[in-house]
Structures are given as structure tokens and as C-alpha cells.
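Researcher: Can you fold this with nicotinamide-adenine-dinucleotide in place?
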Amino acid sequence: MPTILIDGQWRSAVNGQTIAVLNPCDGKPFTTIDRGTQADIDLAVEAAQRALDGAWGRMTATERGRIMIRFGELILKHAEEIAQIEARDTGKPMTVARNDIIAVARYFEFYGGAADKVHGQQIPYMNGYNVQVVRVPHGVTAHIIPWNYPAQMFGRTLAPALAMGNAAVLKPSEDACLSGLRLAELAMEAGLPPGALNVVTGYGHEAGAALTAHTGINFATFTGSPEVGVMVQESTAKNSVPCVLELGGKSPQIVFNDADLDKALPIIVKAITQNAGQTCSAGSRLLVQKDIYEKFTGMVAEAFKKVKVGAPEMDLDCGPIVNKKQFERVNGFIEESIATGVPLLARGALAEGLSKDGYYVAPALFGAVPRDHKLACKEVFGPVLAAMPFDDEEDAVRLANATEFGLVSGVWTENGGRQQRMAQRLHTGQVFINCYGAGGGVELPFGGMKRSGHGREKGFLALEEMSTTKTVVLHHG
Ligand code: NAD
């Protein structure tokens, strides 16, 4: 089946080429996707522009919202089928895949309901004038998403864009895009007019680069690596096109000596092992106050040993890593940390009977990681937790803010004043206190500071990002 959607029609790539899709559980190909390039992107951008000039552009916000809510209902109706596709493509455990699909439906419910609740302003001006500030769509929006939560990212990026009346071109990841294709089919079934959503599968350096450099787009949003994020920003800047970037993190879990350790433990372990650590907001640094450091890292080590890794249908704590490149990258971090003398405190366990060609990694907990070590600063994007002791509140803030990233932080303390001070001083887009919210929460604005990127997704702020304003001045005398 062709995997490129343009103008409501599924088609093969203009060049006729395809890309093999590999199963992360055994490394074997099981299907193909079309290898879209510049020619396909040109057609997709033209189709999006036609949609804006046609039925989609003329639709009221209420009508757009209704289609999106219908789409959300269809997602729920087909949730099990889409979850199976997602688990096969990414290797994630079935429970995680199922939750992801519920979250996608939630994006369309939330933004479908919000579509007609975004109001403009009326500004008092000179006598004889009526001034309105109206919110309008950017126009053609470009969406580049990664492979770690392909279905959720589909909802996160497209739902607010469509709610605001943009026409979208999506370039999903070549490493995992199958759930997005089924979702796009359901969007058509829900009544989305042709061209309002176009999907071009293909490689990042081909279809992705062609999309962000296209003179026909008016806005771009990207989630992925910091390196590619910079390329996207450079590319869109050449055409003065605004962009939102979400580029991952090295998020700290900061545990003070007055914390409820039993409450913190399972949440901290899950925040780095969920989705095999392939989560931008994974809590990948464990900063523990000196006097409880041995005790708490011991508790985390015991919990790590119980973390089980297996194939999606086994439905354990972790699945495999998504592809060979990432598998080697994650193992590289683990091997280099061991080789440079960082103490390995615990590892999780692989289930029996897994294919030796699968990309399975047993989660690893390292202790006393030197503050300047690569493991303390760089994003692994795998189930690897770096524990470090700190002295006091001042030292905790210094250490927490010491990476180039600024996505999420978790603070564990019962001291109310300290909760407030930490929330103020941490340079991250999200601060969770005595909880940790990797991923969830459609209602909550999400995004980074520093090299984690800029702009906000989710919540009502996403509707502002996905639109611009027009000031209309009427002189009525
Ligand atoms: P990537 O940044 O290369 O890919 C993300 C998306 O960007 C994909 O759809 C890809 O096709 C596209 N892309 C690649 N090159 C492009 C270009 N020149 N122009 C436009 N689009 C392009 O990420 P990756 O190789 O899949 O993963 C590498 C690292 O990125 C990971 O180890 C991790 O650190 C990080 N990552 C972060 C997130 C996140 O949620 N923030 C998600 C996935 C990966």
C-alpha cells in the first residue's frame, strides 16, 4: 500500500523508491514505506495551499472542531488495532502502546473542543475607529516528528494546528511511521477535507530537509535531536519562517533528605525505563542529597534489578531500542561509562527466549558519576540513569542547571519553601514537585529552555504557537 498522502489520495513516491521497515525485536524487514523526496514535498505543499484556498479554509472553527472530535472517536474505536501497529513498529510494550493511542484520541478531543474557543480582542482606540485583533492560522504548516512516540507526536503536533485552521504537511520518522499512516486514513474518514493533512514518508535529509526549506510553508515544528533542530532552524530562517523546536533533555530528579522515598522510588524508576528511556522528558539524572545518597541509590538499584525487558506482546517494563543505530549508541554510553570507571550499580534483566538480533538493552544504573562525565551531561536516549550526590539546596540547583538542556526537572522534598525556591530556580520548561509527568497531560504546556528548544506545545499555548494575529482597523467615522 502506498504511504504518501497528498490531496486525500494515497500514492507512491514520485521516484518510485521505497525504504524497508525493520522490526526492532529481530532486526528483520517486515514492510516498506515510500521514499518521498523534494518532488513529493512540492506536491504536498501545493495540495495544502489548495485546501486553504478551498473548503478547509472556508470552514468555521466549529465545523473543524466537529471533524476533530469525530476523528478522536474513530481513534478510540480503532485503538487496539492502532496500538498493535505502534507496538510492532517501535517495539514498545502493549500497555504503553495502548496508553499512547488513548493519548492521541485525547489530543483530538481536547483541541476539537477548543477550536471555536479561541477569541480575539477588541482594542479601544481613537473615536470613530473599531480595532480588532483576530487570530488567524499561519497557513501551510510543516511537521517533522520522531520515532519514540510516533502516534502521540502525530496528535501533539497536528491537533492544535488543524484546530486553528492550518493545512499541514507531516514528515514522520522513517524509523516508525506506520501508526501515523493509519491515523491519517481515519482523519479522512472523519471528514477532514483533501489537502488539510498531507503525509510524506521518507528520510530526514531528503523529504525532511525539502519540507523545512520549502518557500511555500509558513510555519514549522520539529521534535528530534538538537543537531537536526539547529538545521531546521537555519533552514526555516532563510525564508523567515517561524519554528517550534523540541530537542530532548537531560532531566534531573532531585531528591532531598526529607523526601518521601517510597513514593519517589517507583516514579523515578519508571521515568527512565518507560519506553526504554527513549523519551525526551526521561528523568535521566538522579541527584540525591549526600546524607541519603547510599540509602536511596541502594533502593533504586534493587528496583532496577527487577525491571524486565522483552517483546511487545510480553508486555514487560521495557521493549527493545527502536533501531540498530540507537542500540549501538545506548550500548556505547554504557560501555564507555564502565571503561572509564563509573560504578555500575545495577542492571535490569532481559526476558528468556528473545531474538539475539533484537535491539534489547538491560536498563543500567550508574552511581557517583563525575559531574563532567559524558554520562552526566549528554542525552543517552535509552534506559540509563546517572546518579550523583549533592550537598545542599544551592549545590542541587547548580548541578541540576549544569547541562546544556532545560526540558523537565523533578523535585522531591516535603519542605514547602524549598518546593517554591526550586521551582523558581530550575531552568527547565516544566518542574514537577513530588510527582513526575514524562509525556502525559494534553492540557499542560510543554517545551524547553536552552538547547532543549523553544516554543510550546500542548495546552492552550499550542493554539497560540500554531496561529498568528491580524490587527484590523476600521474607520467608521
Ligand atoms: P533525528 O533528529 O535525526 O530525527 C527526527 C526527525 O527529523 C525524523 O523524522 C527525521 O527523518 C527528521 N530529520 C532528520 N534529518 C533532517 C533534516 N536534515 N531536515 C529535516 N528533518 C530531518 O533523530 P534520530 O536520529 O531519530 O535520533 C537521534 C537522537 O535524537 C536520539 O538519540 C535522541 O537524543 C534525539 N531524539 C530526541 C527526540 C525527542 O523527543 N526530543 C526524539 C527522537 C530522538
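Model: Folded with nicotinamide-adenine-dinucleotide in place. Residues 215 and 239 are 6 Å apart (CA to CA).
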